[in-house]
Every structure is written in C-alpha cells, then in structure tokens.
Design goal:
The protein is α/β, with parallel strands linked by helices and about 350 residues long. Helices cover about 40% and strands about 20% of the residues. It binds 1,4-dihydronicotinamide adenine dinucleotide (NAI).
C-alpha cells in the first residue's frame, strides 16, 4: 500500500531532523511513502509566501497525514504561531504526547516514567483574543466550551481504553477559574460515567507540578487544557531526558499531524548536530496510526538499541555524533535486526 504524506520541513533544525526522519521511514517502509514537501513558517515567508500557505493546507487536507518539523514563531510581532493556526484551521483538537523513559544515556532523575499527556489543542488562551482595553491594561480571554471539553474527554478516555491505560488525571485550576475549569471538570465527570473500568482523579495544576517532580511514575495519563498542557508536556519531556527525545501527535477527525515536542533550536540550527530522535519517534507514531505496525516497531527497537548499546549520540545526549552519523547508525541497527529476524 502507498501513502501520500505531507512533509513540513520546518524552520531552524527542521530541515536537518526531517531529512534524517525521511531516510529512516523510507528504509523501514521500502519507499512506500510519497512525501509531499510543503513550506511554512519563516522559510515560507523568506520565499515570499504567507506563514501558512494554502498549498500546505491543501496538501494536508488531501493527504490527511503530515509530519511537521518545528516552525518558528516570532516574539511580539511578525505573525501568529503557525503551529496554533494549523491546529485550529484543521481542527486538530487533541495533542497526544507519550512520555516514556528510554534506556541509556539521557540524564534523568527517574526510572520507568511511562505516561501520556493529552492536551486540548484548540481553545483556552490560544484563540488569540487579546486586546488593550485602555493603555496599560491588556485583556486576554480564555475560552472553554462544553463541546470542546467533552470531545477532548471522549478522545482521552477512548485513547486510554485502546492503549491499555488504567488511570486518568484530569488537571485544572478551578480554585482560580471555577467557571471555565469547572466546566472542564464537569465534562470529565460526565464522560467518565461511560468508562467505569478506568480510574479517574482530578488534580490542581500546581499540585500536579509538585507531584510530577516528586514522582512522575505515579501518573498514567494526564488530561489538560491548552496552556497547562503546553507547559506541562515540556516539563514531562524534561523528566525523561529532554526535548530531543519526545514525540507528539495532533489529531482531529480524519487528519493528524505528527511532530516532535521541541522547537527550531536556533542556537544549533545549520550545524548538523541536532538530535533527530524525537521526530523519528513521531514518525513511529505516524506509522502506527496508518497501520504500519511492523515498520513502527523496527524504528522503536533501533532507537532503544542505539541509546542502550552504542555511543553514537548527539551532543544533547552527551555524545559527539552528528545528526547524519546518528541516522547512519540507526539504519545499520535496523538492517542488523532485519537480518537477525
Ligand atoms: P527549542 O525547543 O527550539 O530549544 C530549547 C533548547 O533545546 C535549545 O537549547 C535547543 O538547542 C535544544 N533542543 C531543542 N531541540 C533539540 C534537538 N532536537 N536536538 C538537540 N537539542 C535540541 O525551544 P525555544 O528556543 O523556546 O524555541 C525556538 C523556536 O521554536 C521559537 O520560535 C518557538 O516558537 C519555536 N517552537 C516551535 C515548536 C513547534 O513547531 N512545534 C515547539 C516549540 C517551540
């Protein structure tokens, strides 16, 4: 079976890590993916286009699946986050980030973290409703609707059921925003009634921050609003060794965009030293999503083996390897495993 996949090459380290990912995916799928590269972000603007050109959106609408390198958001002025616009435009309402301790060299304080962060991706403070009421006073509106809260809860409970998760922690700050977070909690309680076999707890955001640092292994699945999920999923990435290792997916009804948690890493862009593992593991999620489980497992096994058994590591993992050297080593391990099987 052939698949067409939209490829946002991204800004900063994006082209470097997506090129590495394409080499791996082409190898494990025997070239059955037809990549459709599209421009967005500062690369698109530099080419005289808008930050999110229609060609990119059309490609995703057509193919339904995309892998995305990170896109730069200018601070203060320029253009609105393309990441946020893309999620809203395509209604990619659920952001899924599996956070798992990988074997090997990543410096972590914890063993055996294995949790999933699910973040509502379309509303909260991210609808961009911010304005100056009078000089010196800015108002930013947080939008929470029953419809979006119910569907993220339904998605989360279904995801838990389908992926062997046992317990959901619904995160809120209802002590400060009782109406909006209260609605979020109400929707969780309503949907939970249909899943009596899953354990559910609620937790204030600040308590979660402390508990995650104390013992992240007690969590199984975290369900959060947009801003809380944005912040906490980076924190969770830190718990398992950093941004270079954690993949993610933005899922809607019929469309999905897979991307690493990290950004464009301007400090190392163009140097050929970025760690491509996070986007490669995002590709693993994509392969599972499209039903290519064998190829997905080949990717994951090689990544684990690389981390555990080799010293071919990028700088963020304490090594000296380039992006290309790490990718070459992954390809070698994939071949070795194929021969052994
Ligand atoms: P960042 O994730 O780009 O970088 C933070 C630190 O982590 C830097 O020291 C960087 O070198 C390191 N790092 C990140 N990814 C790495 C990798 N794969 N290998 C090795 N080291 C890595 O976060 P920052 O600096 O806050 O954001 C830079 C730009 O990225 C901003 O314009 C931001 O808006 C954008 N961004 C885009 C995202 C996306 O497209 N999904 C997500 C997060 C940020």
């Amino acid at each position: 079976m052939r698949y067409a996949v939209t490829l946002f090459t991204g800004d900063g380290i994006g082209p470097e890590v997506t090129a590495a990912m394409v080499r791996i995916v082409d190898h494990v799928t025997n070239g059955t993916i037809d990549w459709e590269p599209v421009l967005a972000g500062s690369t698109a603007v530099a080419a005289g286009l808008t930050p999110l050109p229609n060609a990119a959106l059309d490609s995703l609408r057509r193919n339904r699946i995309a892998i995305k390198g990170p896109l730069q958001t200018p601070v203060g002025k320029g253009w609105r986050s393309v990441n946020v616009t893309l999620r809203q435009e395509m209604d990619l309402y659920a952001c899924v980030r599996p956070v798992e301790t990988l074997p090997g060299p990543a410096v972590t304080r914890y063993e055996a973290v294995d949790l999933v962060v699910i973040r509502e991706n379309t509303e909260g403070l991210y609808t961009g409703r911010e304005h100056e009421v009078v000089p010196g006073v800015i108002e930013a509106l947080k939008i929470v609707t029953k419809e979006a809260s119910e569907r993220i809860m339904r998605f989360s409970f279904e995801h838990a059921r389908n992926n062997g998760r046992k317990k959901l922690t619904i995160v809120h700050k209802s002590s400060v925003t009782p109406l909006s977070d209260g609605l979020f909690l109400e929707c969780a309680a309503d949907v939970a009634e249909d899943y009596p076999f899953l354990e559910v707890e609620t937790m204030q955001l600040d308590t979660l921050a402390m508990e995650l640092v104390r013992d992240p292994t007690r969590f199984d699945m975290l369900v959060m609003g947009n801003l809380d999920g944005d912040v906490m999923s980076d924190l969770c990435a830190g718990l398992v060794g950093g941004l270079g290792l954690v993949p993610g997916a933005n899922v809607g009804n019929g469309h999905a965009v897979f991307e690493a948690v990290h950004g464009t890493a301007p400090d190392i862009a163009g140097m050929g030293v970025a760690n491509p593992i996070a986007i490669i593991l995002s590709a693993e999620l994509m392969l599972r999503h499209i039903g290519e489980a064998t190829a997905a497992t080949a990717v994951r096994s090689a990544v684990k083996q690389l981390l555990l058994e080799t010293k071919v590591l990028t700088r963020d993992l304490g090594g000296t390897a380039s992006t290309k050297e790490l990718t070459d080593e992954l390809l070698r391990l994939i071949d070795l495993n194929m021969e052994a099987n």
